[in-house]
Amino acid sequence: MKPFAYHQPDQIADAAKLLTSIEDSKLVAGGMTLIPTLKQRLASPVALVDLTRLGDLSGITDGGDTVTIGAMTPHALVAASKLLQTKIPGLAALASMIGDPAVRSRGTIGGSVANNDPAADYPAGVLGLGATIITSTREIAADKFFLGLFETALEPSEIITAIRFPVPTKAGYAKFKAPASRYALVGVFVAKFADGVRVAVTGAGSGVFRVAPMEAALSGNFDASAIAAIKIDADGLTSDIHAEADYRAHLVTVMAKRAVGAALS
Amino acid sequence: MQISFILNGRPTTVDVEPATLVAELLRERLSLTGTHIGCDTSQCGACVVHLNGLPVKSCTLLAPALMGATLLTIEGLQGAPGSNRMHPMQEAFREHHGLQCGFCTPGMLMTAVALAAEKPNLTEADVRHGLEGNICRCTGYQNIVVSVMAGAAAMNAGNGE
Questions:
Q1: Residues of B in contact with A52 (CB under 8 A)
Q2: Pairing state between β A66-70 and A160-166
Q3: What's the pTM value of the predicted model, to 2 decimals?
Q4: Helix axes B88-95, B105-118, angle to 10 degrees
Q5: In whole angstroms, what is the distance from residue B33 CA to residue A127 CA?
Q6: Is the Cα torsion angle A164, A166, A170, A176 positive or negative in sign?
Q7: What gap in Å lies between CA B18 and CA B26, rounded to an integer?
Q8: Does the distance separating the beta carbons of B62 and A28 come in below 8 Å?
Q9: CB-CB under 8 Å, A48 with B60
Q10: B26-82 per-position pLDDT tens digit
Q11: Nearest Cα residue in chain B from A100
Q12: Which of A31, A50, A69 is where one domain is finished?
């Protein structure tokens, strides 16, 4: 790691100010992506702005037909939340599948969503549930937030403070994980609402995306059999050392069926 | 920067560069070499310590995160106060041969103790899921899983506590 200055503001406004006033500064939440990146010298910011002192950004609150998760809430807390296990068990299950226990102790929902890794789990849950990303300046719908490979609608000094999830009738997540990293080779989140079904895929392409034909089929019949024959075009999907694009395309249908199964169980 | 925290029950203050990893701080500055660095890429889990009671990989933790925190390392793991005995999880690893070369063992123990503290009645599936972030290249995990289950049972029965 190259040396850097370290700031631990206790007000969100101060954090935003530091971010704009120090050129080449970066936010750090749990650091589960940033610290390995710094160690490999893939990034060498002059200053880190640590968000852990902003205590009010961690926690899960019941809003009736919504549940709001503070940006600094670690995955372990989401996985163990009785509220989520009751209201959106698919989201608690997703959190329990991220990384390993040590990663879940430190990694945060805000960090994961802001980073928008193409193989991260949370983007599938956020887009699949049609959540709202609440930032230091505004609210952004999930459909307008994820813009592709590590890219989001966030402005440079904008900080995620919480994410508000609508409570679905049913929801489930299934992933085929890369065995060493436990990132999603393909992960599919399925959510059923009174007015239709949403299907979001992570790991398969350069960013999380929805699958309209599956959403239409599941809106008519919320059963794994309804999507068994739907094939995903491998064109544009990721090919790497772990899997070819056509295998990932195949896995999307398999994981979508399993996600529906998880939602119904 | 100056950082004050509780290390294995003792108030500790160190002056460090912010770009210092907790694993380095423990091993190179504080001479606590029980915490091992295996991969240094947060995959192997040999460096697991407890930060405020939760298992974390100290090779992927910056020293400033320790400010005001409580840190427990393998050196702080022990049986009943003054008993001169090992922690029940350590006893279980010895009893059930949960190690061969021993390099991964400090991390295995710290993860296992946190797992057992979090959930009272562990199933084998819980243990295998809970050990996903700890790699052992000797044992094939069989005896580690047996040890963790025995250690968890002993912890919950209050043996040696």
A1: 65
A2: antiparallel
A3: 0.95
A4: 120
A5: 44
A6: negative
A7: 14
A8: yes
A9: no
A10: 999 999 999 999 999 999 999 999 999 999 999 999 999 999 999 999 999 988 777
A11: B133
A12: A50
Show residues of chain A in contact with B47, CB under 8 Å.
none
CATH number of the CATH domain containing A39 = 3.30.43.10
- CA pair distance A190, A230, nearest whole angstrom: 15
In a domain, A17, yes or no: yes
User: Is position A163 within any domain?
Assistant: no
B102-125 pLDDT per residue, tens = 999 999 999 999 999 998 899 999
- Asked if A144 contacts A153 with a C-beta cutoff of 8 angstroms, the reply is yes
In a domain, A177, yes or no: yes
The CATH number of whichever domain residue A212 belongs to comes to 3.30.390.50
Q: Considering CB atoms only, which of A1, A38, A101 is closest to B133?
A: A101
Q: Which residues of B touch A3 (CB under 8 A)?
A: 17-19
Full residue range of the structural domain in which residue A35 is found: 1-50
Any domain includes A13: yes
Q: Is B39 on the interface with A (CB under 8 A)?
A: no
Q: Which chain A residues are closer than 8 Å to B45 by Cβ? A: 100, 102
What ipTM describes this predicted complex?
Answer: 0.93
d(CA A13, CA A157): 10
Per the structure, the count of domains in chain A is 2
